[in-house]
């Protein structure tokens, strides 16, 4: 493991990015044609810089509707890690009329629409001054991000419509959803194109590479292996493909884990070499261009420095806290993920007011507040501007959001090696599995089981909006076991207490209000947004295979 110097020439600070991002306005209609007249026309794609500018909004702004409020409830709430302000996701009773549901659906389809516009316009309008390498780079970025959007769509809604050209879909009154198998195949094709046409090192800091695409191919094939399982066994051909791609990234990319786990979530370490795919937020751009997570999920305005930070009632479930109480040695990851009473952070500050109402910032020591979450979210909470080189504003911070980390590829490689075996002692599997644990200060293991791998993924990526998808993969091959696991999770509000004068610090917890919520087959996928289903009734018909 090693750290890396972060380059200054980054997509984040590109003037073209800021200008273009300001032009982009997200639509609430998933079939609406992108605003081509604003920039994606015959007068725009004349230089390499203009082509690169056209893909820049795909690194943040088009994803805003998902990231803003829904990412935690969907990715961690449905999985039993998070509880808080959007409890229907936690209770497995999401309604089709919920605004965050449609915002998420629209964000992904806005991303798809922007990608489609970029592909269409590069192919139609790229001038002779655009070099072949940049032309292919722009196409590859657009197809990669389209595949990323569809990875979320297919795992959240199941059958969804594949749209390659919004100018054609705009006039359609009979859009149908496509089968899950078709959507995964579409995703693979886009990631394969990206892997073949992106460079191995980022063109600008923050942009994706061929290793990003190969990492996502490994992940996609793992989902396909489970989706096409038989008798509870993953499809071996897809497992082999996942293993090949993950092994290539692990052994040949030259990338390494960041040395300290907690450093992953500091803005100063954005675009470290573990970051294979990240959303690139810009704190001082127009609304929708900065990271909104701290405003919604920070436990107090005292750790944002502004009059936001509305997450005091949001935090971890009893089910997740039980792991940390039973495994207090896993404190490095826990402290970077959740606040516990009496936690102290010398790199993060909180606002304090004196008797005259004057504010100062002091190193943060968390004190649990009665009738608030006793385990609020720490991960992705960067602190006030003083902790971020002066960057940050109300409802807008600069810290990136990970969509794929190298650690994820490590554990996907382990999963591909484990395959359909009950356990493995494979040398490569142990090497990469234990690399994750070593960084966390956890002891090495000499055997890996499916259960221990699932737990490692849960804890490594807790509060990164990740765990639901691991559970879905389990459902694909063993739905009854997955539903039983989810139904037995205690999603109540834990009460965590510091044990005074302990060194290292220790905590106890009680779980006074047990909350368990069954998951049915009918509730596995999110409902189609009511407005879109009403406007396009054909979306509720049986899915059809996509014609490639």
From TrEMBL:
Residue span, RagB/SusD domain: 325-540
Q: Which GO terms describe its cellular component?
A: cell outer membrane
- Signal keyword on record: yes
Q: Which residues form the SusD-like N-terminal domain?
A: 78-222
- Enumerate the subcellular locations listed in this protein's record, separating them with semicolons: Cell outer membrane
Q: Where is the signal peptide?
A: 1-27
Q: Which UniProt keywords apply?
A: Cell outer membrane, Membrane, Signal
Pfam families, alphabetized: SusD-like_3, SusD_RagB
So what family is this one in?
Belongs to the SusD family.
- What name appears for this protein in its UniProt entry? RagB/SusD family nutrient uptake outer membrane protein
Species name: Pseudochryseolinea flava
**Which lineage is the organism of this entry classified under, starting from the top rank?**
Bacteria, Pseudomonadati, Bacteroidota, Cytophagia, Cytophagales
């Amino acid at each position: 493991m090693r750290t890396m110097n972060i380059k200054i020439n980054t997509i984040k600070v590109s003037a073209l990015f800021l200008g273009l991002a300001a032009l982009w306005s997200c639509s609430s209609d998933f079939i609406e044609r992108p605003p081509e007249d604003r920039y994606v026309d015959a007068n725009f794609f004349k230089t390499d810089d203009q082509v690169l500018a056209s893909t820049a909004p795909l690194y943040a702004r088009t994803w805003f509707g998902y990231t803003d409020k829904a990412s935690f409830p969907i990715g961690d709430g449905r999985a039993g890690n998070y509880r808080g302000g959007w409890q229907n996701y936690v209770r497995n009773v999401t309604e089709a009329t919920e605004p965050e549901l449609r915002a998420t659906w629209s964000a992904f389809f806005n991303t798809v629409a922007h990608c489609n516009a970029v592909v269409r316009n590069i192919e139609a309008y790229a001038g002779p001054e655009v070099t072949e390498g940049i032309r292919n780079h722009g196409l590859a970025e657009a197809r990669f991000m389209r595949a990323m959007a569809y990875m979320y769509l297919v795992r959240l809604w199941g059958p969804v419509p594949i749209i390659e050209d919004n100018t054609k879909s705009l006039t359609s009154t009979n859009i149908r959803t496509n089968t899950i198998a078709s959507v995964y195949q579409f995703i693979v094709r886009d990631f394969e194109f990206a892997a073949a046409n992106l460079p191995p090192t980022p063109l600008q800091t923050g942009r994706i590479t061929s290793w990003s695409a190969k990492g996502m191919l490994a992940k996609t094939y793992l989902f396909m292996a489970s989706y096409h399982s038989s008798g509870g066994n993953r499809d071996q051909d897809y497992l082999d493909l996942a293993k090949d791609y993950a092994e290539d990234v692990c052994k040949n990319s030259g990338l390494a884990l960041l040395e300290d786990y907690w450093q992953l979530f500091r803005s100063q370490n954005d675009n470290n070499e573990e970051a294979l795919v990240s959303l690139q937020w810009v704190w001082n751009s127009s609304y929708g261009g900065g990271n909104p997570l701290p405003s919604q999920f920070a436990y107090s305005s005292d750790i944002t420095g502004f009059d936001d930070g509305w997450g005091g009632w949001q935090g971890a479930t009893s089910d997740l806290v039980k792991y940390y109480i039973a495994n207090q040695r896993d404190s490095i990851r826990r402290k970077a993920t959740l606040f516990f009473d009496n936690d102290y952070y010398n790199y993060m500050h909180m606002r304090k007011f004196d008797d005259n109402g004057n504010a100062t910032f002091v190193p943060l020591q968390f004190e649990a507040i009665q009738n608030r979450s006793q385990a609020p979210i720490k991960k992705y909470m960067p602190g006030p501007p003083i902790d971020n080189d002066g960057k940050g504003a109300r409802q807008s911070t600069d810290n990136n959001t990970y969509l794929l980390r190298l650690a994820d590829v490590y554990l996907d490689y382990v999963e591909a090696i484990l395959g359909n075996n009950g356990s493995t002692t494979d040398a490569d599997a142990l090497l990469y599995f234990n690399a994750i644990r070593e960084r966390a200060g956890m002891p090495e293991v000499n055997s890996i089981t499916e259960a221990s791998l699932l737990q490692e993924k849960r804890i490594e990526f807790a509060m990164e909006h990740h765990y639901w998808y691991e559970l879905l993969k389990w459902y694909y091959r063993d739905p009854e076991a997955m539903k039983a696991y989810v139904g037995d999770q205690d999603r109540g509000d834990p009460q965590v207490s510091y044990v005074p004068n302990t060194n290292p610090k220790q905590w106890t917890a009680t779980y006074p209000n047990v909350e368990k919520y069954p998951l049915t087959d009918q509730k596995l996928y999110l409902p189609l947004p009511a407005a879109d289903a009403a406007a396009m009734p054909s979306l509720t018909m049986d899915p059809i295979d996509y014609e490639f």
